[in-house]
């Protein structure tokens, strides 16, 4: 369906970019920071670890100056739990508190709205040793305590808050990409669905805490939501797509937004003996809390069919975007209609629109895009820049679809590209870059880590400037 008249973006639409703490900050043991599961995991010899990353901890002022030059009005970053509370639930680290005050102040000074993720894959290692997300009493208390510290410190300065980054990726793929929610540990399905339930409870209590005590702030989950296509017009394939969507998208959003377990998912959990340990009062906790908007990360769509593949999973190919087989529910398949990025992710800007429409029609809450971008291997050219036309094309297509959604009446408050500066990819090191700004280092050679704007930097700057009028 073509849109005849495109609407303008609201004047207060936030144009931004994102990073996460463990992938950008470095300084992993500096100024009292405790270890997170990302700091202790066994990394592949091939890739860099997270100890220095993009050195954002020491470089944030210069980086923010570049973001300002690009014309950004928002910046989404996560707070490192172990910088604030080194062992996860004990003493508070003053220096960590000060760092984020300085960072937030610097953003505000430059007219950039901070969007804060409370937890982005970097669980404190000492909490993991106590059972991590499987230990309900411990983790719910610790997450609430940590969140309260953040709210008391920063809620006066920060309006937009995100609870947990990609709970659905941690639960669905976390065991395959081990490090996401348990260091190097693999979990069985039963334990994972218990972890997920504990995340729902912890998150609901945190949202309630915010609403009760900090009414000027807005809070939301940040899931990785993707539209899922049936492989054919066979009715069974359509059902398979519905199943995949329930398992990947709606089970999470139904619990977080509506405070309900999705009935199809509940039946699946029951039939497979994966039902979590519900406690008395859990439904009330879930019902009471409601996010103010929905934040989501979108990279690509997915396609499924009903027949089983019986293929052997290749560990190297597993990542957060690739679906797999869940017997009786759906099976993964390729989509031959879409081009792929260098790293094999389908490029699907129409799917971006489908995803936003589906979400808005289901939940009628404003949407915020917290991640969207393209990973590529890159090197500086002789002009000390990167001609990343492929990235510009990706953004152009996705932003066109975003504008169509706005024109169709979908309320969208902010778009944050992944990423502002090059950072360590979640599992493919510094080789896979996403930034508008090139950070000059390789996997093993840190060099001076100078920053160089890429071609997409100037493109985004112009886009933001022009779209306002
Ligand atoms: C999301 C994560 C990010 C980021 C991104 C790109 O799942 O929230 O932390 O890493 O994916 O993924 P990758 O770095 O693996 O290419």
TrEMBL record:
Any single Pfam family the record assigns to this protein: Glyco_hydro_1
Keywords: Glycosidase, Hydrolase
Key word Hydrolase present: yes
GO annotations of cellular component type: cytosol
GO biological process, one term: carbohydrate catabolic process
GO function term, MF aspect, one: beta-glucosidase activity
PANTHER family named in the record: 6-PHOSPHO-BETA-GLUCOSIDASE ASCB-RELATED, GLYCOSYL HYDROLASE
Family: Belongs to the glycosyl hydrolase 1 family.
Name of this protein: Beta-glucosidase/alpha xylosidase
Source organism: Mesoplasma florum (strain ATCC 33453 / NBRC 100688 / NCTC 11704 / L1) (Acholeplasma florum)
């Amino acid at each position: 369906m073509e849109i005849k008249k495109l609407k303008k973006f609201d004047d207060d639409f936030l144009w931004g970019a994102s990073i996460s703490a463990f992938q950008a900050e470095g300084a992993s043991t500096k100024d009292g920071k405790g270890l997170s599961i990302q700091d202790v995991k066994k990394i592949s010899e091939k890739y860099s670890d997270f100890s220095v990353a993009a050195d954002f901890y020491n470089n944030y002022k210069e980086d923010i100056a570049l973001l300002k030059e690009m014309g950004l009005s928002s910046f989404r970053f996560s707070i490192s739990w172990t910088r604030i509370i080194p062992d996860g639930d004990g003493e508070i680290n003053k220096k960590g508190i000060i760092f984020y005050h300085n960072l937030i102040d610097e953003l505000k000074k430059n007219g950039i709205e901070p969007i804060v993720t409370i937890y982005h894959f970097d669980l404190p290692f000492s909490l993991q040793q106590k059972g991590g997300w499987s230990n309900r009493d411990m983790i719910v208390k610790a997450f609430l305590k940590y969140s309260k510290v953040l709210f008391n410190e920063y809620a006066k300065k920060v309006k937009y808050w995100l609870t947990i980054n990609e709970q659905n990726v941690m639960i669905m793929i976390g065991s395959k990409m081990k490090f996401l929610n348990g260091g190097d540990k693999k979990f069985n399905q039963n334990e994972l669905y218990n972890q997920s339930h504990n995340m729902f409870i912890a998150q609901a209590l945190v949202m309630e805490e915010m609403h009760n005590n900090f009414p000027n702030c807005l809070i939301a989950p940040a899931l990785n939501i993707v539209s899922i296509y049936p492989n054919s017009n066979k009715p069974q394939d359509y059902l398979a797509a519905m199943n995949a969507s329930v398992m990947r998208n709606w089970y999470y959003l139904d619990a977080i937004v509506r405070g309900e377990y999705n009935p199809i998912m509940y039946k699946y959990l029951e039939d497979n003996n994966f039902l979590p340990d519900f406690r008395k009062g859990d439904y009330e906790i879930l019902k009471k809390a409601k996010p103010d908007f929905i934040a989501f990360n979108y990279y690509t769509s997915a396609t499924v069919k009903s027949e089983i593949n019986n293929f052997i999973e290749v560990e190297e190919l597993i990542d957060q975007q690739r679906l797999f087989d869940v017997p009786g529910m759906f099976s993964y398949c390729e989509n031959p209609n879409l081009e792929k990025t260098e790293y094999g992710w389908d490029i699907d800007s129409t799917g971006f629109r489908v995803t936003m429409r589906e979400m808005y029609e289901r939940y009628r809450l404003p949407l915020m895009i917290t991640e969207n971008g393209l990973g590529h291997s890159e090197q500086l050219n002789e002009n000390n820049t990167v001609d990343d036309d492929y990235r510009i094309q990706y953004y152009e297509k996705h932003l066109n679809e975003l504008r169509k959604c706005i024109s169709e009446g979908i309320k969208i408050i902010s778009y944050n590209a992944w990423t502002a500066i090059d950072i360590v990819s979640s599992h493919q090191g510094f080789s896979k870059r996403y930034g508008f700004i090139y950070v000059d280092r390789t996997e093993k050679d840190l060099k001076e880590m100078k920053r160089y704007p890429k071609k997409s930097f100037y493109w985004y700057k112009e886009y933001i400037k022009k779209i306002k009028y």
